[in-house]
Every structure is written in C-alpha cells, then in structure tokens.
Please model this.
Amino acid sequence: MLTQNPLSQERKRKLRWFIVLSTMPLLGVLTAFGLVPQSDLGLPAAKVAIEEIALPTVNDAITVTSFWRSERVQRGDTVAELLSRLNIDDAAASTFLRNAPEAESFRKLSVGKEIQAETTDTGSLITLRYLGNNGAQVLIDKQNGLFQASILPAQLEKRLFVRTGEIKTNLYAATDAAGMPEAAANQLHELFSGDIDFHHDLRVGDKFTVVYEMTYHNGALQSTGRIQSAEFINQGRVYRAIYFQKDDQHGDYYTPEGKSVRKAFLRSPIEYSRVSSGFSNSRFHPLLNKWKAHKGVDFAAPTGTKIKATADGVVTYIGKENGYGNIIRIKHQGRYTTVYGHLSRFAQGLHRGQRVAQGELIGYVGMTGLASGPHLHYEFKINGQHHNPMRVALPDAQPISSSYQEAFQVVADDFVARLNLLRNTNLAKLD
Ligand SMILES: [Zn+2]
Model:
C-alpha cells in the first residue's frame, strides 16, 4: 500500500526512458536502443524502445511528444514519491491520484506492483497504467481535460512450453514429474491412444516430448491450450503428431508425413463408460429370456449421457425401431455403418440425410425399446457385416489434403528440426 508520509529526500536516480517509437521516425538519433524487458503490464515490446538518459534533440525531423517510464511500488512509498520517480510533475494528476475515489486502486497498490506512466516532456501526465491488486488492468488518462480511470480489456498472451518425460510407472506419473498441466497430459493421452494402448503397451523407459500452449490473462495463467506437437517413443517405436490449422476453424493432428493421427472412428461413442455387455455371437438375453447373438456392445451410462457420432457421416435413419427403441443409423465413407440404440432422446434438430462430424452430439443415453436399464447399444458394420467395435481395426482419418501439403510441410519440417534438437539435449539428460 502507498502511505501518505511526507515526501522523503529526493534521490538521484538513473533515468530509464520508455519512448514510444511511433512518435520517433528517426531512430538513429538515439544513443541506445533496445527492446524493453518483459513487463508485467505487457506493453507491446516491439513498439517500445529504451533510451538511457540522453533525450533526443528536438528538431523538425523528430518530434518526441511523450515518454513512458516504469516504476515499482516500494515499501513506504507515498503518492508524491512515486509520481516523482515516474517523472510526473502535474498538480491535477497528483490531486486526482491522491483523492479521487476512482483512483483508490492506485493508492492500494502493494509493494512490487509495476506502474507505467506516459508523460509530456514537461512532466504532465498523459496515461498511467497498472495492474490492480485484483488483477484488472487500470488505465488513467485525461478526457475533456479531466482525469478518469477505466479498466482495460484483458491482455491475453500465449506462450509455448516444452516438456520431456520418461515412463517409470504410468503415463500420468510421468507427465506430473515432467511438470505438465493435467489438460496437456490428457491431450497427450488422447493424441496417441489410437496407436498406443496406454494400459497394456506402455513400458518403463518410454519417452515423450510435448510442446503445448498456455494462455495468460494479464500475466496470470488462464488456461492450458492445445498441444502443438508431440513425440512418443513406445517400445522403441516413434510416434509423432503435429497440429496443423488450415483456417480459423479447422485444425487437426498429422504425422510429419501428413497422415492423420486421428482414426476415422472413435472407439466409443460415449466418454468414460464401461462395456456392460460385449460383442458375441451367442448370449442369453435377459429380457427375451432366450439365447441370442449380441451383434454390438452395450455401454452402461446414466440416462441423459451425451452420445457422439464416432465418425463423419450421414444420418440414414432416425426414429423408433422395435427392440432398439429410439435409434440412429449413420453411414460413413460408403462401406461403414454405425448404429446407436435405446436413446432417451435425439440431439435437437437432427434429421435424416443430415451430415454429422466425428464427435458431434447426436443424442442421449436412455432405455427405450428392450432394455433392462439405461445403456447405449452400439453396432459397427462393414459392408453390412457386424464387427466388434472394440476390436475392429479402425481406418485412419483423411491425410492432409494436397492443397495444404506445402504449407503443412513447412510446419512439419520446423517441428522435426526442433524435436531433433530437443531430443539431443533434453532426452540426453534423461538417459
Ligand atoms: Zn446391446
């Protein structure tokens, strides 16, 4: 907090001027020039230069209209002291910051908080910026000759992180040890689960490297974004995945060769559920009270659980059908059909002939038709023949399209080069 003590003895301090480049067309005039170090307030570094002490000479070629300075609140600081360090010599600003209710957050700033001030060359305050103790970015400036305070929109910043790990017991122990956030660990698991069975295939000594994105909101971590690229070495086999975005909406993971990492089908239409009744050519049906083949699998899940289309396709049937109750049939890539039965209800507006995407919500678990309890009955057919959806070899999703091949290759080559570099440094440490 800023105290209201009288102004202490003025000390001579090294001036560090922050000068907005846009007002200085001729950089050559400056004696020193560099990028501002990382700032809490995130002033765009590329637009700012530092100049030590020497002010540019004013002539008709260069007009410096304002200067930025940055200071941190010190223990025992008064408003006057802080303004003095910020080189603000402005009675109206001083009165506002000392008394105005809108500037209360300024007077309550804790020790160490950074304040950035833009002044004229005579010390009049133009703009004051700081992160309040509650994390909101406050801007104080003049409107119609009067100072006012406003909250700036959040500053979002994305940073990339690289983590390398080695399996000692299980995947999550290794991602924890590598310091990966849970969301990134889950993505890693999901990314390679089409190729690696993490329950049975994992071995001690397997290694991974992951590059992921984190979003910061006014300098504080807001969310863990997606994995940009990853490598998993399982039993000596190398699996790699690179995220490639062809436009604002559509991105996917590919191998460096451009094959899709994703499978064309999800293994299961619902998350986190157990198979309550497996695929068999003969089982005793509890309701029909006779032996009957079970040409699909049942997933036990509470009524209302979301059901996803396991692959891109077209709805060929949606409605009621005998024992199945509410049922959806979807046709995929010509040869494949998936069937979802016993639904309590369908996704709103879903109709016959509609195109659905993999993972899209199509309905909700229920117990319509012949069902002893809420569950999803799921079938997987190839050319009309039933296959066990939990065992069938799933086809790969579409590779990178030829129109994006060139752009993708640039991203992929860069990734592979970085990965090789990382592998030679980080992984060497693990060996
Ligand atoms: Zn069933």
In short: The longest helix spans residues 405-430.
